[in-house]
Amino acid sequence: MRNSSSALARHLPHLPAVLIVTVTMLLPLAVLIIYGFTSFEDGQRTVSLKPLARVLTDSIYWQALGNTVGISLLATLVATVLGTALGWLFGRTDLPKATLLEQLATLPIFIPPFVGAVAWTLLAAPRIGAFNVGLRNLGLPEVLDIYTPGGMAWVIGIYLAPYVMMMVAGALRSMDPSLEEAARVSGLDGVRTATRITLPLIAPAILSGAVLAFTIAIGLFGTPVVLGWAKQILLLTSRIWIAAQAVPPDYAAMAILAIYLIALSLIANGLQRWLLGGRSFVTVTGKGFRPHAIALGRTRGPCLALVGFYLLLTVAAPLAILIAACLSTYTWSGRFTLGNVAEIAGSADVWDTLKNSIWISVVSASITLVLGLEIAWLANRTKLRGRRLLETLALVPVSVPGIAFGVGVMFLWLHAPIDVYGTAWVIILAFVGRFTAYAIRPIGASLMQVHPELEESARVAGYGWLRTLIHITLPLIRPSIVASWILLFSIFMTELSMVVLLYSANTRTFSVLSFETWSTGIFSVLAGLSILQLLVGASIMLFVRRLFGSRALSNS
Amino acid sequence: MTVALQQVTKRFGNTTVIDALSATFRSGAISVLLGASGCGKTTTLRCIAGLETPDIGRITIAGLDVFRSEGGLSLPPERREIAMVFQSYAIWPHMTVRENVGLPLRARGADAREQAAAVDRALALVGLADFGSRMATQLSGGQQQRVALARSIVRPTRVILLDEPLSNLDAKLRIAMRKELKALQRELGTTMIFVTHDQDEAMSLGDEVFLFHEGRILQQGEPQEVYHRPASRYVAEFFGKTNFVDAVAAPEGDGRLALRTNQGELAVIDAPNGATPGPVVCAIRPEAWRIVEPAGGQGIRGRVRERTFIGDRQELVVETALGPQAVITLGYHAAKAGDEVALVADPQRIHLLPGQADA
To answer: Does A184 touch chain B (CB under 8 A)?
Structure first.
């Protein structure tokens, strides 16, 4: 009797976590499946393949599927080639200023896809694009057209390259350099060592990076709409949005298209698992490896130029064109004005939506962080039954493309008896549900590095579990907590693909305002809004880092 | 085959890791490069392998230049006809044991049957005959060590370089592998250059030991030679415990020297070559002291301060007017802390450190 009551007492505090995981993560996906495989007739919902049949027989949806797969694969190719090259340069060679350049090369991740797309419109749209104007002035043909499948794949790909880069550089850094040296001593020359030893060893990392890039690419909404709308190159995500705009909304099509996206993501991840067969060659032995960089020699110049060109295309040129456009009378006419800045500063709409974005992001990031912390802690530090299952379930939504998850959240709350749909809470619940994994992974990883004996010795010394948590555990894992919060916040500030389905007149976010401004075609104001979004995001990140992240722990 | 370095210097940034080093490593022998970490021993090995490029100097293997700063010759590792065993074993995790061991042959386009036979032979020599089809990652540390060794002997090479290959094994296995390695080298007659920081390993394995310090070789020679006749205080201390006793050497006739301390005469020894009367430092190994009854009036008087019983032997610290002396006696010798004793040094085993009276 004492046993069962104490077991209950131990489990009870974690009931809210279980509930939140169920409501924010599992129910949306369940409801999504229900909507996809039932139909509503004569006031009754019955199991039916009608929605699926309708989508399968409509050629526009096949086209959307083809576009999504084709463009995403092409974008993945761009991201993988660029990312592997950059990762190798930073992780394995004596490229000068590599540390600084590598940090710069991760910046594209923090540029919202929508903003990147807007900037690239200004850079390479037919006729008005800055690059095309440049070509025209040189008397060359204006060959660049960003409003094509190739153009879309290019823009998506260059902004996804840093994900591949980080994985490849990480794998190369944790690879024992003597594996390569042993090959040289055994008689392989530099090229054969690279192809027969290094490449097979980092292949799992490249593959993981490529699969990640692909799953992000298929779920993108802002980029494909901004770049594909002009020539009506529509992807699954664009089609979901169009179906949501229909009167009445075409819920069945939305559900099936969302399931398409989930299926694509599952196929990509399944393929990766099958190819790897559970193997990872990267052997982290914890021995101090001599960082023995490969000398680039005469190719150093071209390699530096490649990195510089990448930064120019993803960061410098987009920022420059946005600033130029924001300060010009019309798009970038060459006549400069502060009119757009004044218009933005004087617009109540701008400040209201910005306020919405900030508070929704702060609240969502904080809830997500606490939930992620609790789940990571339960999984790594307790012996409660079902702890690993809880963690696994909480990691599911991250492989569901954002807009598909948004569809599920929308369906769940649309007809719910409590008033969530139409309030900011539906957005917050969607954020928490989809992104808790982003907190669980880094926090779990750093919890694993904190030896349990550090906590046990605090307990022996007389601290209760709560004081141990507050005074020992949390300070030790603080870097990962701060980093997770900042990452979540910056994602939430710019999130568009879920918000675009869930916002209402009172809960428009800043990214929605930007999207509306794009559809009205006022690019100067849009450029200004994009810059404002980057500035606000960057300054809050710096503020939080200064406030909580300054006292770095030297030996953790 | 003989490996020779002439005036080799290697700098990393402003630090000189190898400083105008010259050495010859004998053919068919095990040469051990010994020293504390950062002394340049591993860099020397990597320069021989071609994994590092010296700034100046010349390196020859079997009389052929593999590196010469004059003329800018530097053969890449794959053309030096060497084998190397790495500290981390460097077993390729994406290959089976057979594929790992066979790579040096495949790299040179040996035919398949020849390859298979050579791999079988190498695996049998290291006792892994039945492990060929395993993935390399399924092996224990000791087995991976053997795979690395098999890979280094799968084809005849001019020299096998070993970079602390035993340091990641546990103590028992390390000692067993030491013996196996030496037996293997005797069987194959290969030239081996072996890097370690462990003086026991150096002495038990090496035909010749090269003691490194700050990028230079302080002393080289057979292990017994280096142990019993260290060239300097640093060498003496690196090779186990040594007591240093200040004394004045006075000629006794017949080419003998009397060593006198302020506590009386230490011993009368045969004057070593080049020894001159005057102040000297005597290096006395702990086992060279003998404990006698103080009542006899013989030896240096002292009192036992500490005693550590090991079993077959015991280590004592005896406080004397010449400073504390480490003494090793047999385990059954009755001694306890606080005992009054006298110490007598074996005259055969007192080594005079040259020209270092005040060092």
So the answer is: yes
